[in-house]
Design a protein that fits this description.
2 helices
Length: 87
Amino acid sequence: MAKRIIALASADWHIHKWQNFDNNGSRLDWCRRAAIYIIGRAAKLDVPLLFAGDLAHTPKGLETETNIVIQGLFKNQNPNNRNTWQP
């Protein structure tokens, strides 16, 4: 009997505009691309993405650029059909 993935779990993305070791927003873009990969992988596997927390690094002080990135990750997601997600 073959094993089947039933869910993909992830946590602690801490998306924000990093100050240290950043090169013109490259770390924020890396966070965005990593999130797109994880969300897309769950959609491709046709399994739910279980997110355990810490999407944003500092939710009380999100800068506009980070907020736009986070909103963009989920704007095309249909909660009734996980296969509709598009980056």
